[in-house]
Amino acid sequence: MVQIAKKNLSYAFYLCLFVVALVELFVFQVLHPHITFRWEEIPGFYALYGFVSCALLILVAKALGYWLRKEENYYRRFEEEGAERMIREVRK
Predict the structure, then answer these.
(1) Which domain holds residue 41?
(2) Dist CA 9 CA 2 (whole Å)
(3) Across the chain, which distance is largest between two alpha carbons, in Å?
(4) What is the C-alpha to C-alpha distance for residues 27 and 25, in angstroms, rounded to an integer?
(5) Which residues of 34-50 are buried (b: 16+ CB within 10 A; e: fewer)?
(6) 27 plus 41 within the same structural domain
(7) pLDDT averaged per 10 residues, the chain (length 92)
(8) How far does the chain reach from its first CA to its final CA, in angstroms?
């Protein structure tokens, strides 16, 4: 098995990051992507949009968690009521 040192792994990571940055600069400076909507011209719009969407998704999930939360003995309560009902029916 090949042993990879942390130092080499970090160098590889930064090299890949640098290459991706160069490719992105090439695409935006040379190829001139076609802009369909006005907000696409705002620098970092999609990064901000993704961050706000993710934060909103987390807040909605937390709100749903509070709304859907049941008390600790929720299921046990129904089991006890069911058992009491069965005892009453047997005694009849």
Answers:
(1) 37-92
(2) 13
(3) 87
(4) 5
(5) eeeeeeeeeeeeeeeee
(6) no
(7) 77 95 87 80 90 97 89 72 72 68
(8) 74
Q: Are residues 12 and 55 in the same domain?
A: no
> What was the pLDDT predicted at 82?
72
pLDDT of residue 7: 78
pLDDT of the residue at 56: 98
Residue written as tokens 């009453």?
A: 88
Is residue 67 domain-shared with residue 80, that is, in the same domain? yes
3-state secondary structure the chain: CCCCCHHHHHHHHHHHHHHHHHHHHHHHHHHCCCCCCHHHHCCCHHHHHHHHHHHHHHHHHHHHHHHHCCCCCHHHHHHHHHHHHHHHHHHC
